[in-house]
Amino acid sequence: MFDQYRLLVPILIYVAYLRALKMDAVTQKAMTKKSNLKSGTKVSRGSKQWPPAKTVNSKRKQLSELNSTKLMSKVKPIIPPNFVDNLFKQTRFTKKEIVGLCKLFKKLVAIYGAESTSSVAAMSSVALITIPTQGFDRLMFREFLQNEFGITTEEILTDRIFCFFDQRNDGVIHEDEWITGLSVLLKGTQDERIKYTFTIYDLNNDGFITKEEIFSLLRNCLVKHPQDEDPDEGVRELVDIVLRKMDCDNDTKLSFEDFSTSVIKQSLLLEAFGQCLPSREISENFLNSINSVQ
């Protein structure tokens, strides 16, 4: 068994390397965007994920800027004591960190919400009236993951991460959901992180990571050559290798027990099918910045 896992590690390292090559340009763009966002420079969305904004007249532009200013002015971090106490019991954050996260949540929602509203207004023929957002919607949260945590993974995974945070399943990540989810990403135990990544990879929530799901997760990691007759053949071969090494009970799918056993034996397998956690360095920097939020 040890020799099998030793053979699997170079394969997954190779997959991670190919994924890193593919996402290097996206990561650079995300980091530049984060720097511009902090300095106050307006950032345009990438053409792949965001439609190009049409030219708007000066009146609508002034209205958008006015609405953004009003939105920011409504950010008042009034935090009930029982709210902090409840989150302190549910998460691994200190009370001081929770207070900082509450303040940061309101600021980030205001920033990403204003940016999202401005983009929508630019594509519309009718000026929109900005309504304060209660939390992160899918587009805002995807921007947050990219800019703050450097998670520039495929859309299928960012949507799964959103669903993990959105415990109420109402399409919005609220303040308490955001803090509870971050507790796992930033301070989770090994068991919590294993459960989290398994949940992300279990695309249809049936309690198993199937062969088809692994294929969907890995197909964007490999570089495809135009001359290949079947570009997905290499992905299918890799899926078969992964199943042979991680499927302990040989039922052609990964149960939580299969996945957990594999990760405990080899920690590199935690994110074997795609990035869904921030790096240790980014996590530490984010935690250090919480206490400085005004």
What is the overall silhouette? elongated
Q: Which residue ranges are poorly predicted, with pLDDT under 50 across at least 5 consecutive positions? A: 42-60, 62-66, 68-75, 117-132
The pLDDT mean sits at 77
- In total, how many beta strands? 2
Overall SS class: mainly alpha
The number of distinct helices, counting runs of at least 4 residues, comes to 12
* Structural Rg: 21 Å
End-to-end separation in angstroms reads 52 Å
**Largest sheet: number of strands, sense, barrel closure:** 2 strands, antiparallel
Give the proportion of residues in helices.
55-70%
Quick overview of this protein structure:
Residues 153-188, 189-224 form the EF-hand domain. The protein is an all-alpha fold and 294 residues long. It has twelve helices and two strands; from the N terminus they run ααααααααβααβαα.
